[in-house]
Amino acid sequence: MSFLQRLARRKVLSVEEKESTDLDRCLSVFDLVFLGIGSTMGAGLYVIIGEVSRDTAGPAVIISFLVAAITSAFAALCYAEFAARIPRAGSAYVYSYVTVGELMAFIIGWNLILEYVIGTASVARATSSYFDNLIGNQMSTFFKTHFPMDAAQLSEYPDFFALAITLVLTGLLIAGVKESARFNNFFTFVNLLVVIYVILCGLFKIDTHNWNLSQDEVPKGYGKGGFMPYGFSGTMAGAATCFYAFIGFDAVATTGEETKNPQKSTPIAIIVSLFIIFLCYCGVSAVVTLMCPYYLLDPRAALPAIFDRAGWGVARYAVSVGALSSLLTSLMGAMFPLPRILYAMGSDGVIFRFLGAIHPRLHTPVLGTALSGVLAGVMATVFSLTELVEMMSIGTLLAYTLVSVSVLVLRYETVANLPGCEDLPSLNGGCETVQKYGSFSTFTLKSLVVPGTPGPTTLTSFITKLTMGLLLLFITGACLVIVNASHELEDWTQWTTVLACLNGLGIILCIIIIIRQPQNTAKLPFKVPLVPWIPILSAVVNIYLMLKLSTITWARFGIWMLAGFLMYFGYGIRQDGTKEESSLLLESSTKEEKERKIVQ
Q1: Which residue from 371, 362, 310 is spatially nearest to 342, judged by alpha carbons?
Q2: What are the residue boundaries of the Cationic amino acid transporter C-terminal domain, all occurrences included (predicted)?
Q3: Over the Cα atoms of the chain, what is R_g?
Q4: Which end of the chain has the smaller Cβ count within 10 Å, N or C?
Q5: Cβ atoms within 10 A of the Cβ of 71, count?
Q6: Residue 532, preceding bond cis, omega within 30 degrees?
Q7: Are 38 and 188 in contact, with CB atoms under 8 Å apart?
Q8: Res 573: pLDDT
Q9: Residue among 35, 41, 21 at smallest CA distance from 86
């Protein structure tokens, strides 16, 4: 096998391999929904609402959350389809492995490792800080006095409490997935009760005038009053911030080998959890901005402050319980996927294989869980993570983009290039159709918009993949123009306008070509509606948000990727392993499975 063939080899799974696992299949739809809520609805509920309302969107933060929920739903639908196609541990890593190839799968998996490690460390640190605040900062004062650290890029003091809670949850994850699910379910339920309590109590103190403040009532620097004091641009800027409050639902997709009937349960859980999260964000933000003028909100702790202002100081304690519960479930949600990613990548040999070992009695990836827990705990103890938090976003947004692209790849894929032709009548119009239209010798410019076949062929699949590659380039170019250009129209140069128009024209032409290609009609438990529109919109949003990240974040990302490539090209690419793939990814589950093999 040549060097390039190794980079492009893809994973295939037979029916037996998709259903068999060394992990414990014990999670129900209820468990998955609560995992999605707990992983996603964390500290953002208690922090982001106040911050965005006061400084960015005002009462229109509700619209910001709605826009963020819709854009998050694009990625969620793509994850749901892949969860129905590939019920395996590994989430976006596995999804990209079966469609794009090994190198891109490694890149996604390596970035997911970074995302979850930093996510775990930052949430552990936040939990410790919040608890420390409740007890009058006694813990931080003690550690600063007895264990000061003055080194650059490190914390002021070693946070042993953050280390302790991380190791405790690591032990819980090692003990078993069911025990972890019970822990998550309990604290997520408590958090939901607090949200309901806040909304119901807040309804008795609302004042609709707070949504219609005049400009004279608003202090200078806080917009123009009304429902949209910062205008439409402020509302959309708020949506970009609120988008990150919906990150976390992908944790559900990592449970493919621990879920009962994952092909149905996982898509349902992803969609339902995202909908419940939106209702919670929307309800709390409406109550907060109706109870108190937006410019008086505390960006660090909006809920306790407004209840104090309303004379309901007792509500502060309920909010504190909810905040701690949300932080604990966020911590569990950040820790839960990482061992599954390590397990999937270790099993394939793209990273060290011992990380994929499953304990025969506990049915959990013990070594991977322990290693990730200790690493995250040490980072939470000694590192200052303020400047590293953005790095979580790169891994997440890159994974979202690849999953969206992979949905398009499979939706327009054909099985004609696989050995045998017995499955083609139900998918591509039969062998005669493929023989007539599948050859590259039949390519003409007309075939770009008039394929002349009822189903996908080798030629139409190639056209779609090539066009999608060009589409991603045009989308990236357009987003770069938007990000680098000023929001003020008078600052736009002639060349900026030309570049924007050229990229826009390229996007339109690529979309027209993709729409005209025939889709695979395989039946699945769940399929993304409105293909190719939803996957393309998901890719646009994710690419735009990635390009909004700072230069230093991209520099750190480059260093992390360099370390990853050293591991992959020094170890992973040499592993033959069991690289499995199955035509079931491209056809109905009722079809007889093909023999496991490597697609080279």
Answers
A1: 371
A2: 526-575
A3: 25
A4: N
A5: 23
A6: yes
A7: yes
A8: 85
A9: 21
Rounded-to-integer distance, Cα 464 and Cα 459, Å: 9
CB 327 within 8 A of CB 70: no
Alpha carbons within 13 angstroms on the beta-carbon side of residue 154 total 14
Indicate if the alpha-carbon torsion angle 572, 95, 539, 41 is positive or negative.
negative
Question: What is the CA 424 to chain-centroid distance, rounded?
Answer: 35
Task: Please state the domain extents for the chain.
Answer: 26-136+152-386
Contacts of 14 (CB under 8 A, 6+ apart): 580, 582, 584, 593, 594, 595, 596
Other CB atoms within 10 A of residue 390 CB:
18
- Contact (CB, 8 A) for 414 and 519: no
Whole-number Å distance between alpha carbons of 329 and 349: 31
Predicted confidence at residue 524, as pLDDT, reads 77
Distance from C-alpha of 59 to C-alpha of 207, rounded to nearest angstrom: 12
- Greatest CA separation found in the chain? 80
- Of the candidates 107, 102, 104, 110, the one whose C-alpha atom is nearest the C-alpha of residue 575 is 102
* 29-40 vs 315-335: helix crossing angle, rounded to 10: 110
Which range (148-152, 525-529, 543-547, 572-576) has the least confidence? 148-152
Contact 90, 345 (CB under 8 A): yes
Q: What is the pTM of this model?
A: 0.81
Tokens 């009937």, residue? 261
DSSP code string of 108-127: HHHHHHHHHHHHHHHHHHHH
CB atoms within 10 A of CB 240: 18
Report whether 58 contacts 238 (CB < 8 A).
no
Rounded to whole angstroms, what are the CA distances from 370 to 123, 316, 347? Answer: 18, 36, 17
3-state secondary structure of 66: helix
Residue among 33, 138, 26 nearest 80 (CA)? 33
In whole angstroms, give the CA distance from residue 85 to residue 78.
Answer: 11
Fold (topology level) of 26-136+152-386: Amino acid/polyamine transporter I (1.20.1740)
Q: Are 324 and 311 in contact (CB under 8 A)?
A: no
Query: Is the Cα torsion angle 551, 554, 556, 562 positive or negative in sign?
Result: negative
Closest by CA to 150, choosing from 334, 317, 384, 311, is 384
User: Which tokens sit at 486?
Assistant: 């000023």
Residue 429 predicted with pLDDT over 50: no
Residue 258, exposed/middle/buried by CB under 10 A (0-12, 13-18, 19+)?
buried
DSSP secondary structure letters along 1-29: --HHHHHH-B-B--HHHHH--SS---B-H
Please tell me whether residue 259 adopts helix, strand or coil conformation. strand
Residue 22: name the closest of 371, 252, 365 by CA: 365
| Rounded CA separation 89/95 (Å) | 10
User: Closest by alpha carbon to 478, among 498, 504, 456, 460?
Assistant: 504
- Helix 177-202, helix 29-40: angle, nearest 10: 60
Q: Which of 148-152, 375-379, 386-390, 434-438 has the lowest mean pLDDT?
A: 434-438
The answer to whether 417 and 439 are in contact (CB under 8 A) is: no
Token digits of residue 206 = 């609302």
CB contact at 8 A, 100 and 81:
no
Using CA atoms, how far apart are residues 462 and 468, in angstroms rounded to an integer?
A: 10
